[in-house]
């Protein structure tokens, strides 16, 4: 409950004490009122502070402005949240309703009138004297008729809205509700229940209430309780008279609510998880469970956002909308005034312009006569100027024709240079491609020679292995013969592979010759090609390790070893063969 809402109830009590309607009340009455306020709000009363504050006003009654300053300084600043707000409102109501209510034909009780009075204070503007505007009256009546389960009579309300004042006092609002003018005939009990529902929702901050079954924490039994949901907590009571409070679930930012699956024969379950414990609750049906989950989740979200109750937030937003609309209307009125003033200025300017146009018309008539006199002279002058311009134009055309011819020659030369440039680019591209193909051919030839050398070494190893196996004992001769046959087959396979490599080498040589022909064709397109081929001619030969002796040529191209190396290997083979023969003998 905000301080502004408390001040509204106190303002009603103050105006009830102001019997002369002069806006002032005696000091003794205000002292009693202050004492009662402190008692209800559980604040220690300080009579010395009261006398000290009003020591300069000892001669007469006190105004509402001075008393409001005293309240804000010595009472309202000390207010805590632990006092009964309803009792506070009822005390202020008791002081004023007997003096202000004058309509005896109301269909509502004094208690219901008190609740309407509290709703008025909640919805009224924060200006004194307190009034409620027609938009808030419509909001209240719609919630009231919705709570009663009937509809608002739109035609009657539209008629009332068009013919009545734009705002009402608290007592006019009570008379309006008590006469049940805007809804169809309802029973007094139904009207009382509707007023109580709106009062509970708006004033008591009860967002939802109803019977549900709660699981205990100690005995784990399920007990039916009357639950009351407020923005900060979910309280549960013994019954709906809310006298015996059994417990309270404090809703903070860390809480969460979610539905539970059916278990142990219990259906429509949901759980509220707090930081210290969790609460399992069973709703009457699935619809009620969803409504309770949404309501509890909305309260938790409000706490996380640091907002008050949803009805107070809605009231604040409605007031902000009205303030914006009022500011826009004032701005529009100001703009209308500015536009009206601008229109008047424009009218004066148009009148001045009309007079100037009349003067300009008379002046134009005089100038027309003068123009006709000088027109013939001007025509003669224009004729002479036109002849001179024709001569100049002919000269310019001759110059343009000459320039066009020069430009065409220049463009022709540029096109020839571009064609020559494209031909040179094509020749260079062919040269680069030929180099690339030559390098690829060289790499392919080197790879084939290396594979040939590896296969030859493998054949030599196989031959040596066969020679060593021949010198073994006669007992192993049959097994050696079988192994030798296997080796012979491997040797034949290796020979076949060697033939395949020779064929690949022959294909590579053919490709090499084809690449050479391409190089010759590329040499015809560029003048520098032969020099570049001469520089790179030595790169065609493979670089072999060892001594620099004449390279041995075979049927498949350059060999992978020199003649000296071949002689050394031949001697080695002969020695190995002689040793093998000695071993057999």
Short summary:
Pfam families: EF-hand_SWAP70_N, PH. With 585 residues, the protein is α+β, with helices and mostly antiparallel strands.
List the helices and strands and how they pair.
Layout: H1 3-17, E1 24-25, H2 27-40, H3 47-53, E2 62-63, H4 64-74, H5 85-100, H6 110-123, E3 132-133, H7 134-148, H8 154-163, E4 167-168, H9 170-178, H10 188-202, E5 208-215, E6 222-229, E7 233-237, E8 245-250, E9 256-260, E10 269-273, E11 278-282, H11 286-305, H12 310-470, H13 477-525, H14 529-535, E12 553-554, E13 557-558, H15 563-584
Low-confidence stretches: 537-547
The global form is: flat
Number of strands: 13
Radius of gyration: 57 Å
| Proportion of residues in β-strands | 5-15%
Q: What is the percent of helical residues?
A: 55-70%
Mean pLDDT, rounded to whole units?
82
Give a verbal description of the structure.
This is Switching B cell complex subunit SWAP70a. Residues 311-532 form a coiled coil. Residues 205-301 form the PH domain. Helices cover 66% and strands 9% of the residues. The chain contains 15 helices and 13 strands. The strands form 4 sheets. The chain has a 7-stranded antiparallel sheet with strand order 8-7-6-5-11-10-9, with helices on one face. A hairpin with a 3-residue loop joins β6 (222-229) and β7 (233-237). α1 (3-17) runs parallel beside α5 (85-100). Residues 537-547 have low confidence and may be disordered.
């Amino acid at each position: 409950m905000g301080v502004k809402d408390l001040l509204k109830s106190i303002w009603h009590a103050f105006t009830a004490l102001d019997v002369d309607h002069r806006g002032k009340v005696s000091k003794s009455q205000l002292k009693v009122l202050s004492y009662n306020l402190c008692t209800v709000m559980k604040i220690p009363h300080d009579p010395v502070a009261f006398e000290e504050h009003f020591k300069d006003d000892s001669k007469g009654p006190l105004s509402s402005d001075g008393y409001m300053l005293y309240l804000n300084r010595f009472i309202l600043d000390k207010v805590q949240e632990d006092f009964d707000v309803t009792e506070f409102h009822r005390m202020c109501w008791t002081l004023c309703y007997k003096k202000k209510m004058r309509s005896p034909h109301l269909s509502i009780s004094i208690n219901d009138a008190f609740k309407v009075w509290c709703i008025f204070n909640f919805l009224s503007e924060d200006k004194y004297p307190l009034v409620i505007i027609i938009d808030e009256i419509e909001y209240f009546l719609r919630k009231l008729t919705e709570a009663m389960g009937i509809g608002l009579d739109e035609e009657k309300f539209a008629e009332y809205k068009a013919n009545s004042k734009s705002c009402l006092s608290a007592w006019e609002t009570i008379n309006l509700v008590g006469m049940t003018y805007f809804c169809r005939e309802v029973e007094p009990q139904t009207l009382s229940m509707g007023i109580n529902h709106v009062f509970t929702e708006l004033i008591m901050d009860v967002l939802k209430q109803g019977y549900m079954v709660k699981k205990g924490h100690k005995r784990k039994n399920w007990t039916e309780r009357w639950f009351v949901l407020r923005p900060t907590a979910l309280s549960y009571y013994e019954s709906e008279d809310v006298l015996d409070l059994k417990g309270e679930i404090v809703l903070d930012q860390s809480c969460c609510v979610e539905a539970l699956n059916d278990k142990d024969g219990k259906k429509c379950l949901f759980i509220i998880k707090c930081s210290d414990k969790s609460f399992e609750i069973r709703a009457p049906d699935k619809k009620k469970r969803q409504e309770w989950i949404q309501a509890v989740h909305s309260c938790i979200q409000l706490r996380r956002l640091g907002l008050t109750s949803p009805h107070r937030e809605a009231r604040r937003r409605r007031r902000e909308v009205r303030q914006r609309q009022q500011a826009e209307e004032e701005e529009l009125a100001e703009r209308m005034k500015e536009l009206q003033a601008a229109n008047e200025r424009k009218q004066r300017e148009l009148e001045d312009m009309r007079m100037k146009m009349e003067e300009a018309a008379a002046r134009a008539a005089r100038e027309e006569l003068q123009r006709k006199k000088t027109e013939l002279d001007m025509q003669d002058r224009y004729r002479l100027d036109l002849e001179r311009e024709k001569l100049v134009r002919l000269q310019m055309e001759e110059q343009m024709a000459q320039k066009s011819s020069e430009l065409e020659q220049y463009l022709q030369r540029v096109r020839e240079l571009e064609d020559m440039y494209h031909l040179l680019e094509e020749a260079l591209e062919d040269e680069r491609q030929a180099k690339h193909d030559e390098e690829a051919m060289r790499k392919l030839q080197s790879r084939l020679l290396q594979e040939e050398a590896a296969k030859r070494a493998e054949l030599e190893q196989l031959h040596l292995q066969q020679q060593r196996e021949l010198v073994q004992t006669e007992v192993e001769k049959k097994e050696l013969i079988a192994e030798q046959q296997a080796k012979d087959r491997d040797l034949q396979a290796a020979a076949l592979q060697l033939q395949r490599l020779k064929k690949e080498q022959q294909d590579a040589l053919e490709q090499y010759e084809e690449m050479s022909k391409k190089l010759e064709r590329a040499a015809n397109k560029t003048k520098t090609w032969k020099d570049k081929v001469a520089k790179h001619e030595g790169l065609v030969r493979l670089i072999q390790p060892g001594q620099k002796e004449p390279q041995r040529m075979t049927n498949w191209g350059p060999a992978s070893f020199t003649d000296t190396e071949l002689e050394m290997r031949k001697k080695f083979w002969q020695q190995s063969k002689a040793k093998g023969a000695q071993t057999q003998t």
